Amino acid sequence: MSVPTAAANAIATESTFDDVQAAVAAAVAAASVLAQVSPAERAGWLDAIAAAVEHHADELAAVADTETGLGRVRLDGEVLRCAAQLRFYADVCAEGSWLGVTIDHATHTGPDLRRMNVSLGPVAVFGASNFPFAFGTLGNDTASALAAGAPVIVKGHPAHPQTHAALMELACAALDAAGGPAGTLSALTGLDAGRQLVLAEGIGAVAFTGSEVAGMTLHRLAATRQQPIPVYAEMGTVNAVVVTTDGADAGDDLARGCVNSFTLGLGQFCTKPGLVLVPAGSGVDVAIANHLTAEPPSGVMLTPGIHEAYDHGIGALLAAGAVPVAQTRATDPLGPNAWVLKADPVLLQPGSRLLAECFGPVILVVEYANRYQRDQLIANLPGGLVATIMSGGKGDEEVPELVSALAPGVGRVTVDTWPTGVVTTWAQQHGGPWPATTDPRATSVGAFALDRFTRPVVFQSTPNAALPTAVQRGNPWNIVRRVNGRIKVPHEVARCQVP
Predict the structure, then answer these.
(1) Which one is catalytic: 169, 234, 367, 398?
(2) Cα angle 366-368-372, degrees, rounded to a multiple of 5
(3) What does the DSSP 8-state code read for residue 338?
(4) Catalytic residue list contains 234
């Protein structure tokens, strides 16, 4: 596969106001059709897109390799991850519990009530720069919105426009061949088009993955609408690691794991650990520095703009009081210098630049004198996507108290596993309190990602013929439902086994 001429021309031409209005009108028309389509049929559409991505995996990775610094090894794996995610959301869609169907039969004291989740309508998706496949055009946001019955309009990311165009062309062709209605999936390009899309009357929600600055810009923009809509922005955070007293004894293994995690992908992961709290005098900072300088990361950052922002971020950390422990020197002009920094614990106050994300291969080490000071530092942490505890093993008595202390401020707590990377599963939570996300209840990865694009409606004393199919008598869609307080699982739930 090659990027066709039409797609290539579309890359250079930003979408106009008329393009935005046409895409939204088509999506609004498709929304009413999607509401009548069974989850099993819609799952087939996602399967078709996944098959197309797999079939063209090599060509897609090659296109992305020409416009990103991620490299073929990373991109080859990410293309297949994208296809696997699409199939996962197809399974979630077909199983149907995301519809939240809850039925209370009429009694002598109450009416018949049938509750279900319905789509918010067309969703505007703003994909990530650092994951062109897994979190980009056909990533988690797009796949979960389609699974939830919402048409999607993707605003292509300028970091990889040809990859975006190639993905859209094959996905739209696969949808069309599988029977998806026109307007189910479309795309726009350009900053102005993105703004117009957020403000367009037919859009029901926005999904975004990226920086806090961009995410909050979209959030504020949506709030200016005559009818505000939710913006589900997943934004980067500092992602703290707390090393227990016994955990610090791991020495070289701890340091090696830390370096591998914060330099993975040159630190261009939203789950990269950015801050490590360690016992005073443990020497963990020196061990991390030694491992970093012994095996410095290589490669180039995703874009020149990201590289420049990283350098500015390092400058801001130094200006805020961080001091260098170690630094590597990049051999490529677009390759980042990796840093290990250290700061006095008194500087970690709410609002400090030391507690904000620096997108790239840098780690800040802060020593705590005792458990009281450790807990004070944890209390000052901003909301995060993930927090990590590195312990001395199963018998470490500090672990329970740290889990309790860290959980209120993050969406995920990991113990003795480094946080980098997010698996797409039923139990996953990829979100957290602000500034991790604009809605701490939401996740952008996993089965519950569908919840962002629906709202509940109750049908009271409604004739069966007038009910939506999901709540009709006889369970026509063969989905999981709660009836009179008890979960009812069909003998054969399509595609997946319900535990």
Answers:
(1) 234
(2) 140
(3) P
(4) yes
